[in-house]
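Appendix B, example 12.
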Amino acid sequence: MSGEFIFLVSIIFLAALTNSTFGFGFNLVAMSLLTLYFDISFIAPLIPLLFLSTTLLIVIRSRKEIKYKSIIQIMIGASVAVPIGIAVAKYGNAQVVKITIGSIIVALALFNLFAPKMPHLKDNRYASLFGFVSGLFGGAYNITGPPVVIYGLFRQWDPQAFRATMQGYFTYVTMLIILTHWYAGNFNNEKIGYFYLGALPAVLIATPIGKYINQKFDNPEAFRKYVYYIMLVLGIVMIAKATVFILSN
């Protein structure tokens, strides 16, 4: 068993565990760490396949907890934005965009960790807007999570509803991204199928463990703080990686 395979499986397990526990984080954890070893052209189509596997498991088991009215509006916004995001990836400066996204994530995390009161959205009127921004980031850089995570936190859903609703949305938008990669011919590398099948057991093991941990959060406010701390760390990682790339080129 090669070292690169063990590394990939370990990171996928960590990403799936984070995603199953908190309702987001798979793409950010996987993309941040796997790009240290693998070429992005290889992992970009592989990660959505593995992510879809974990989201489907969660959606099937937690479908009764999904906030369907919110998720439909988020999906509509994302559907409009995904093609625009693909164009941004093709013509825009990827590293500058990543620094911008990371800075927004860090700023929002810090604000909500130290502000006296978190903003509260009482209805779904802004759901499509958050979905649009998510689709834009997802189409461009496989980063669909932060805008929708922020929306879910602003709606103040309980941990179980938050986790289930995030996964319902991610399932839909990940399918769009996979279709885009398929259309672009990005699945021609035969190693993708080998690594997918090899890493799938890690997803299957991590997902129920994450659900068990999630159910232990009986304090929604404490849960939200954990989520913001994770967003803070991942945002800093995004900024650091993009900055290092710019300075080294």
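Residues 3-247 form one domain. The chain has one domain: 3-247.
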